[in-house]
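Late entry, evening session. Most of the bench is empty. Finally got around to the prediction I had been postponing all week. Sequence below, unchanged from the version circulated by S.P.
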Amino acid sequence: MLAKLPTLDELGHKGFNVSIFHGLYAPKGTPADVLAKVNAALKEALKDPGVRQAPGGPGAVVSVTDGRVNPAEHKKFVA
């Protein structure tokens, strides 16, 4: 069904790019050691090519190329 729809380029939106981001969040007051363990597990998981390809689809790219994998940098980005 979607194959019959025009692309954004065909609609005149040349070079249109959609980006989304995800983050892991914990309740205020979560102990720092727990946050550190969760963040370490996230970083380890992102090393696995299967994890990075899982949400993929046509044109989808999972890219973690900046400091936002660190809690303080992600907080700044969201703010």
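Two things to note before I forget:
Residues 28-79 form one domain.
The radius of gyration is 17 Å.
Will write this up properly tomorrow.
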